[in-house]
Design a protein that fits this description.
alpha/beta, 13 strands, 14 helices, about 40% helix, Aspartate Aminotransferase, domain 2, binds pyridoxal-5'-phosphate, four-stranded antiparallel beta sheet
C-alpha cells in the first residue's frame, strides 16, 4: 500500500500568477505591474481596512463559529434566511468543503474544460472522477455539460462568468440547462465575478432563479479587494448549509475576515469606483488589442483573454513581458495553451502594459 495515494501523487498543484517580489528578486526591475491574478487594482475597501484595524485588538479571542455578523448582513442584503448563507476561506474553501461534505468516493463530477482549475484540483485531491465538456468557441457549452451527467454524477460545477474566458452563459440557456439536470445532482454556480457581470440583463443572477439543488458561490476577493483576507460566501438550501456547517473547521473564517466582509458590503463607493475603473480598463484593452490586430474574448469580468496562434507565441510574449516588468497569465494550465489572460489594472498600469506590448510587437 503506497503511503501517498496515486491520485495525490499525480496531482499538479495550482500555480498562481507570479508574485511581484519574486520577479523583483529575479530580475531586479524597478517597475513591475502585475496583471495576472484578477485582483482589485484599486486596493482594499477603505471601510474594510478600518474594520480590520479595529478588530485586530480582539484577535486573542476565537471568532464566532457561525460567522453570525456576516451571515446576517448577507442574509439581509439578499433577503434570505441566515440558514441559507454559508461563509468560507474564500470561495475555493467552500468548493473544497462541498467536495468533502457531499461526495462519496465513487460518485462523479462534471464541469467545462477551459474553466477554473481549482475545481479540477479539488476533485482530483478527493480522487473523484471528473468529466469535462469542451468549450464551444471559448464559451461554456451547457448542452455538452448536461450531456455528460450520468447516474453516478453528484456534482456539476459552472463558473459564470467563466475564468479564464470571461464569457457568460445567458439566462435562457441556464434555464433550459437546469431543467435537464436531475434534482439530486448539486449544481455549483460560481459567481466570483458577479459584480462585474450583473449589469448585463442577459446574465442569469442565480439569486433571482432559486433552485433547491443550486449552490451559489461569491467572493470578496475581486470587486471588494479582499483577496488576501480569504473570505467567500455561498447561498443554498438550508439542508445543504446545515451539513456544510457540520464539516467546516470550527473557527473558519477568521474574525478579521468576517468583520472585513461586513464592512466591505457597505462600501458602496469603493464598489462603484472598482466597477467604473474596470469598465475603463476593459475598453482600453479592447482598443489596444484592436489596434494591434490581436483577437480577444469580450469579457464580463475584470480581465481580458487574448487568443494567439500558438503556445510558442504565448511563451515568447509572456517571457518578453516579464523581462520588461509586466506579469500576465499564460493559460496552458487552464487547457488554453494559445491564450493569455490580462487582468485590468489602474489606468497607468494599463498604459504601461500597452507601451511595453507595442514595443515587443
Ligand atoms: C471563477 C473563480 N472562482 C473562485 C475564485 C477564487 O476566489 P476566492 O479568492 O474567493 O477563493 C476565482 C479566483 O480567481 C475564480 O476565478
Amino acid at each position: 500500500m503506497p503511503l501517498v495515494p496515486k491520485h495525490i501523487q499525480d496531482l499538479q498543484p495550482y500555480k498562481a500568477g507570479k508574485p511581484i517580489d519574486e520577479l523583483r528578486r529575479e530580475l531586479g526591475l524597478e517597475r513591475i505591474v502585475k496583471l495576472a491574478s484578477n485582483e482589485n487594482p484599486l486596493g482594499v475597501s477603505p471601510l474594510a481596512q478600518e474594520a480590520i484595524q479595529k478588530a485586530i485588538a480582539d484577535v486573542n479571542r476565537y471568532p464566532s463559529p457561525d460567522g453570525y455578523a456576516l451571515r446576517k448582513a448577507l442574509a439581509d442584503r439578499y433577503d434570505v434566511n441566515m440558514g441559507n448563507v454559508f461563509l468560507g476561506h474564500g470561495s475555493e474553501g467552500i468548493i473544497s468543503l462541498i467536495m468533502r461534505t457531499f461526495l462519496l468516493d465513487d460518485e462523479e463530477a462534471v464541469t467545462s474544460a477551459g474553466s477554473f482549475i481549482t475545481f479540477d484540483i479539488q476533485a482530483q485531491s478527493r480522487g473523484i472522477k471528473l468529466h469535462r465538456a469542451p468549450l464551444k468557441d471559448y464559451q461554456i457549452d451547457l448542452d455538452a455539460v448536461a450531456g455528460l451527467v450520468n447516474e453516478k454524477t453528484k456534482l456539476v460545477y459552472l463558473a459564470n462568468p467563466n475564468n479564464p474566458t470571461g464569457t457568460i452563459f445567458k439566462v435562457h440557456k441556464f434555464l433550459s440547462f437546469i431543467q435537464q439536470i436531475p434534482k439530486h445532482v448539486l449544481v455549483i454556480l460560481d459567481e466570483a465575478y458577479f459584480e462585474f457581470a450583473r449589469q448585463d440583463p442577459a446574465f442569469p443572477d442565480s439569486m433571482q432563479y432559486r433552485f433547491d439543488n443550486v449552490i451559489t458561490l461569491r467572493t470578496f476577493s475581486k470587486a471588494f479587494g479582499l483577496a488576501g483576507v480569504r473570505i467567500g460566501y455561498g447561498f443554498a438550501h438550508e439542508n445543504f448549509i446545515s451539513n456544510l456547517m457540520k464539516i467546516k473547521l470550527a473557527f473558519e473564517p477568521s474574525s478579521l475576515a468576517i468583520c472585513a466582509g461586513v464592512a466591505a458590503l457597505d462600501d458602496v463607493e469603493f464598489l462603484e469606483q472598482t466597477i467604473r475603473l474596470n469598465r475603463i480598463g476593459k475598453h482600453f484593452l479592447y482598443q489596444l488589442f484592436d489596434e494591434l490586430g490581436l483577437r480577444y474574448l469580450p469579457s464580463h469580468t475584470n480581465f481580458v483573454t487574448i487568443v494567439l496562434d500558438s503556445e510558442k507565441t504565448v511563451n515568447t510574449l509572456y517571457d518578453k513581458l516579464l523581462h520588461k516588468g509586466v506579469i500576465v497569465r499564460p493559460l496552458k494550465a487552464f487547457g488554453l495553451p494559445n491564450c493569455i489572460r490580462i487582468s485590468t489594472g489602474l489606468e497607468e498600469e494599463n498604459e504601461f502594459f500597452a507601451k511595453i506590448l507595442k514595443q515587443i510587437l
